[in-house]
Amino acid sequence: MGAKPAVCARHLPRYSIRVYCLCVPGFKQPPKPVPVAPKGVERIACGERCEFEVSGTDVTREGIIWNLSVAGLYLVLQTDIPEVDSSLRVRLWLPGDPRPVLAEVQVVWRNPPSCFSGCGANAPRFPPGCGLKFVDIPAADLARIQSRVESVYPNRAETESDPQR
């Protein structure tokens, strides 16, 4: 019984691939750019819980901190994401530290849920939630956050302070 002849790539049929873009309810096109933190601001992954109240309400809600910097944080929320420019009071915890950080923050951008599970509509690389900037935070709490960030990025602070590097 005869062996099958070898197949050469140039003898394979050519296929064309067509990509169709569908309008999906809840998915905005094109995605909005993710705001960039001020130059030199490093973020750290966190994964800790965060309690918050929208100013003018007495309802305490809870979310998860996705990342944290000295400029602010990204708060993961599945529903009822506060509107841009809303003021919030937050109580958050740093990993391994039982003392809460208390701060006043402002919503600078929203990332509502998309039709894809676990992805935001405006920035799919993030889960649904919102970006918050610190407006009023005690210096001691800000120093604790700075210390935590520097423990993850120890060489960045040296490089920025030493112009010869």
Describe the structure.
This protein has 165 residues and is an alpha+beta fold. 13% of the residues lie in helices and 29% in strands. It has a single domain, classed as predicted glycosyltransferase like domains (Thrombin, subunit H). It has a six-stranded antiparallel β-barrel with strand order 2-3-4-7-6-5. Strand 3 and strand 4 form a beta hairpin. Helix 1 packs across helix 2. It is globular, with a radius of gyration of 23 Å. The N and C termini lie far apart (71 Å). About 15% of the residues have low confidence.
SSE map:
Blueprint: E1 44-45, E2 49-54, E3 61-68, E4 72-76, E5 87-93, E6 100-111, E7 129-136, H1 139-152, H2 154-161
Features:
165 residues; six-stranded antiparallel β-barrel; Thrombin, subunit H; 2 helices; globular; alpha+beta; single chain; 7 strands
Low-confidence stretches: 6-22, 31-37
Number of domains: 1
Derived from helix and strand composition plus strand pairing, the structural class reads alpha+beta
Question: Order of SSEs, N→C?
Answer: EEEEEEEHH
In which range does the helix fraction lie?
10-25%
CATH superfamily: predicted glycosyltransferase like domains
Overall mean pLDDT: 79
What is the spatial order of strands in the main beta sheet?
2-3-4-7-6-5
Biggest sheet statistics: 6 strands, antiparallel, barrel
How many β-strand stretches? Answer: 7
Estimate what percentage of residues fall within beta strands: 25-35%
Global geometry = globular
- Counting copies of identical and different chains, the oligomeric state is single chain
Radius of gyration, in Å, reads: 23 Å
In whole angstroms, how far apart are the ends? Answer: 71 Å
